């Protein structure tokens, strides 16, 4: 099976500054990346068609979800729980948070997060992290046909 030319990432991030930096970091690579940005947990579930909405929605499941934990309306743990208990359970979800609290890490993994990363404060380190995330999850990782 050949990989699609463009991979879709759902970025769930309420901070516009963080979102812009993450988008820039993800787009700097060989694989075309389409980024859908949800500003809160409710919007994320609507985009994934896990919560009723007549608004915009993804036509296909994303190749990756990057999920902040501290979100308005519906927090990241609730979004993670909804994704992993749905038809989209196989979609990789990487928590990308400013929190390195052990309880947050433990809770994310108990809800079946695929990875937990702490956002570096330094843009250079964030860029390096995002290049690694992009390479692993969007270039090297393979997904089940059911997600395509």
């Amino acid at each position: 099976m050949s990989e699609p030319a463009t991979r879709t990432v759902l970025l769930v991030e309420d901070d516009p500054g963080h979102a812009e930096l993450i988008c820039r970091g993800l787009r700097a690579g060989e694989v075309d990346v389409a980024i859908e940005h949800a500003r809160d947990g409710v919007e994320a579930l609507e985009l994934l068609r896990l919560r009723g909405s007549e608004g915009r929605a993804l036509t296909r499941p994303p190749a990756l979800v990057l999920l902040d934990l501290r979100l308005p309306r519906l927090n990241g743990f609730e979004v993670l729980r909804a994704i992993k208990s749905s038809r989209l359970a196989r979609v990789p979800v990487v928590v990308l948070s400013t929190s390195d609290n052990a309880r947050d890490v433990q809770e994310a993994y108990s809800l079946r997060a695929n990875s937990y990363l702490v956002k570096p404060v330094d843009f250079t380190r964030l860029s390096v992290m995002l290049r690694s995330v992009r390479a692993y999850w969007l270039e090297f990782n393979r997904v089940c046909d059911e997600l395509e």
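Residues 6-141 form a domain with the Rossmann fold fold (CATH 3.40.50.2300). The longest strand covers residues 6-12.
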